[in-house]
């Protein structure tokens, strides 16, 4: 089956064990601070607060009808304070909800653009490339994890982006005409396709045969390979394995059906090496694939580029300095904690809008009803 069509199903089998043994086994508890838990806890908290306010109101109302003038005046005074507190709580809730929506909108805007990665320290003598063989060898090329995704999945993948790129990063892809600058990641893990350009075969090498790269398409979102549809014949594609820079020129940009697998086949003897970029064309479940292919032009060693093509290294965000340790591709998280929070909030809202709208309406209705009653 071509990449992008998941024909696998998860089957879990088990066998009975003694109850006493089962009782002693560790339990993986759900995260209490999940999005659903926070929403439900907020609703419960507000409901309890307004029940307390309502009961206090009834109590003060009863006291305000007392024959004792002192008790009556004191109760009326406290009722006024209660109304002020309720109004303040209502305003606080309103401001908080507006703040949540603003943060979510900001997170949504962040999700609509590629995450800009910091420069990669390749090392003075391309030491980072020495870690590449192990990553390629351990990559998953079966594609069992590949599944349809949306913008919420894209945001979720950013949580683990630094580790994902450090574990599987084997190069970089750079297309200047479309401002595409992505890590090349070994293997077809679903997370790889959400964080960069994923290699199709274990034995593929830049500058040889058919070097195939895949990435997910987030419908109507300008991330990953979205812009490859705009590539024109003759435009350049740059790729590096941290030892050399390989230059290709686009000769094909087309849409094919998912059954047309000849685009990923190896080159025949005598044919020029090419690079093939693949993404889905259309929304979730589409049977079409966008294919861009470029013919190999030449190789520039990084050591030579350091002397003659410094602007290119800067554009590709490659630094030939330092000594990379343990194959670290990204030293620092590419996304700040605040930006990640904004994106995750937006992703949760997009994943289930009603789960957000209903609590928002309820939280606003409760104080309105209370103020109307009193």
From TrEMBL:
SUPFAM superfamilies assigned: Sortase
Membrane spanning stretches: 33-56, 82-109, 356-373
Active site, renumbered: 216, 280
GO biological process, one term: proteolysis
Parts forming coiled coils: none
Highest taxon of source: Bacteria
InterPro entries: Sortase (IPR005754), Sortase_A (IPR042007), Sortase_dom-sf (IPR023365)
Pfam families linked: Sortase
NCBIfam families, alphabetized: sortase_fam
Protein name: LPXTG-site transpeptidase (Sortase) family protein
Organism from which the protein derives: Pilibacter termitis
């Amino acid at each position: 089956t071509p990449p992008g069509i998941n024909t696998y199903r998860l089957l879990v089998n088990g066998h009975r064990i003694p109850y006493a043994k089962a009782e002693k086994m560790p339990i993986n508890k759900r995260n209490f601070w999940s999005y659903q838990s926070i929403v439900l806890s907020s609703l419960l908290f507000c409901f309890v607060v307004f029940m307390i306010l309502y009961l206090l109101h009834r109590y003060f109302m009863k006291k305000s009808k007392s024959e004792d003038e002192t008790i009556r005046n004191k109760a009326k005074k406290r009722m006024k304070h209660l109304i002020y507190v309720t109004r303040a709580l209502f305003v606080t809730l309103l401001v908080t909800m507006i703040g949540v929506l603003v943060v979510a909108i900001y997170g949504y805007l962040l999700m609509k653009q590629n995450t800009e990665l910091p420069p990669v320290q390749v090392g003075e003598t391309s030491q980072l490339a020495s870690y590449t063989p192990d990553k390629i060898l351990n990559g998953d090329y079966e594609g069992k994890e590949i599944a349809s995704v949306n913008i919420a999945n894209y945001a979720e993948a950013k949580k683990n982006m630094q580790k994902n790129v450090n574990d599987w990063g084997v190069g970089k892809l750079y297309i200047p005409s479309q401002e595409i600058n992505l890590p090349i990641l070994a293997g077809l893990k679903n997370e790889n396709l959400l964080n960069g350009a994923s290699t199709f075969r274990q034995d593929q090498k830049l500058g040889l045969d058919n070097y195939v790269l895949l990435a997910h398409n987030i419908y109507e979102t300008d991330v990953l390979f979205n812009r490859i549809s705009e590539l024109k014949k003759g435009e350049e594609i740059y790729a590096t394995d941290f030892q050399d820079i390989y230059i290709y020129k686009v000769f094909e940009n087309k849409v094919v059906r998912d059954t047309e697998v000849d685009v990923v086949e190896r080159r025949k003897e005598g044919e020029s090496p090419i690079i093939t970029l693949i993404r889905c064309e259309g929304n979730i479940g589409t049977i079409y694939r966008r294919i861009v292919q470029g013919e190999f032009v030449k190789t520039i060693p990084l050591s030579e580029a350091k002397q003659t093509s410094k602007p290119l290294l800067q554009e590709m965000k490659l630094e030939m300095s330092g000594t990379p340790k343990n194959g670290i591709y990204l030293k620092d998280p590419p996304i700040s904690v605040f930006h990640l929070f904004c994106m995750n909030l937006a992703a949760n809202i997009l994943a289930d809008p009603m789960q957000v709208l209903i609590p928002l309406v309820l939280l606003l209705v409760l104080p309105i009803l209370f103020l109307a009653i009193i």
